[in-house]
Amino acid sequence: MSIPTLASYPMPSQPPQNRVQWPLEASRAVLLIHDMQHYFLNKYDRHSEPIPTLIQHIQQLKARCAELGIPVIYTAQPTEQAPEQRGLLTDFWGLGLSDPQYADQQAVIDELAPAENDRLQTKWRYSAFYGSDMRATMANWQRDQLIITGIYAHIGCLTTALEAFMDNIQSFFVLDALADFSLEDHLMASRYVAQRCGKVITTAQTLQQL
Question: How much is the pTM?
Answer without folding.
Answer: 0.97
